[in-house]
Amino acid sequence: SREQLEFARRLAQLGYWEIYMDTGRTVLSADMQELLGLSPVPHHDFEYLLQFIMEADRTSLLVSREAALRHDVPIDLECRLVLPDGSVRHVHVRGRAVRRHDGWVVKLAGTVQDITARKQVELENARLYVELEQRVQSRTRELELSNRELEAFSYSVSHDLRAPLRAIAGFSTLLHDQHAGSIDAQGRHYLERVIAGTVRMSTLIDDLLELGRVNRVEIVRQPLDLSALATAVSSRFHERWPERVVDVEIQPDLVVWGDLRLMEVAFENLLDNAWKFTAERATGHIKVGKEVQAGQDVFFVADNGVGFDPKYAANLFGVFQRLHAASAFPGTGVGLATVQRILQRHGGRIWADAAINEGATFYFTVSEKPL
């Protein structure tokens, strides 16, 4: 309704003002006069009205007035009014010079909008922001301390675990090598299981420490030739398993911004997976390349191995998550979690696509620019 529109207008805006240059008389709208506690008279003196402007804001108002008079610069500023009851209102003053045809300034005229409510919200938001920043900083300090304690704990545990583990592995190996003849077949089998368990536990400790290191290490990003990196890592696998027939195809000119050591760890884990799960193939086929998806470079490592059920793909990247029995395909279930964390720290992500007995493809992205 018209009444509602008028009410909304009055809430949003105090009114208008005019300052006539020949006499200095200032005309205020009725709602402005009411706000300032002034008598409803036709006009007031500008110097008298200036007292209602907070002293810290008067200079800005006067400078804006001179700029409007001399250079036709619009008046557009915020200032504070000090009312007779001592309360403070924030207002937004707008205006311009009104000139005659010969350029003479007749008056300055404009509007005043009450922005007190908005300012209160801004001040409250600023207070909350400062409080939040303080809480974040406090929480960050606590987290850094916790991480340092966790790092010290992990190294302490790894050291404490390794000593008895080395003893178990060493004496088990000696027992197997020197006294196997006095132990029956079942006893030798048990002993071999013990030795294999110590090797697996040692590898698990190494992998967990590597995952922790990935979370802590500072990233130094530089242009990386992933093609050369993948070639070097693949060569190491060929040397490790010379009896395997594995055809590795690496697309040239795969370049990203990344940390050399971390991206090498990522490729070691991805290619280790590809070699591992193609072990049952007469000839393993592994391809490292790049394609464009939705305008973004997406890198991939594909193989013709045993694959997996795609409905479990989301479980691959959790710590200790495995989709195949350890007896069939050895591993700790930490490698892909490490790869995911490395790519997250590079502003990227990783996902997988596969089918049972039809191979698997791991896709990943890396942010195009240094973080």
Describe this structure in words.
With 371 residues, the protein is of the alpha+beta class. The protein is built from nine helices and 13 strands. The protein has helices at residues 2-12, 30-36, 46-49, 55-71, 116-179, 185-216, 226-240, 260-277, 335-345, and strands spanning 15-20, 25-28, 44-45, 75-82, 88-99, 105-114, 221-225, 246-250, 255-259, 284-293, 296-303, 350-354, 360-364. Strands 3-2-1-6-5-4 form a six-stranded antiparallel β-sheet, with helices on both faces. A five-stranded mixed β-sheet has the order 8-10-11-13-12. Helix 6 packs parallel to helix 9 and helix 8 (260-277) packs antiparallel against helix 9.
Quick structural summary:
The chain has 371 residues and is an alpha+beta fold.
Tally of DSSP β-strands: 13
Cα(first) to Cα(last) distance is 55 Å
Report Rg.
38 Å
Largest sheet: 6 strands, antiparallel
Identify the strand order in the major beta sheet. Answer: 3-2-1-6-5-4
Structure class: alpha+beta
Helical stretch tally: 9
Mean pLDDT: 82
Low-confidence stretches: 324-329
What sequence of helices (H) and strands (E) makes up the elements?
HEEHEHHEEEHHEHEEHEEHEE
Helix content bin: 40-55%
Q: Which strand-content bin applies to the residues? A: 15-25%
Instruction: Assign an overall shape.
Output: elongated
